[in-house]
Amino acid sequence: MIMSYHHGDEKNSLQSPLPPARTGRRYWRHSHTSTAIVAVTALLISITAWVFLVFSNTTTCCFHHLRNWEGSPHSLLWDKQSSHHLSVVTPPLSHSLLIDTTHTSNQNNSSSFEWEGLSVKNIVFGIAGSSQLWRRRKEFVRLWWRPNDMRGHVWLDDHVPHETGDDSLPPVMVSKDISSFRYTNPIGHPSGLRISRIVTESFRLGIPDARWFVLCDDDTIFDVDNLVVVLNKYDSSEMIYIGSSSESHSANTYFSHSMAFGGGGIAISHRLAEALSEILDECIERYPKLYGSDDRLHACISELGIPLTREHGFHQWDIRGNAHGLLSSHPIAPFVSIHHVEAVDPFYPGLNSLESLKLFTKAMRADPRSFLQRSICYDHARHLTVSISLGYAVQVFPNIVLPRELERSERTYSAWNGITQRDEFEFDARDPYRSAL
Question: Basic and acidic residues compositional bias: what residue ranges (predicted)?
Answer without folding.
Answer: 1-12
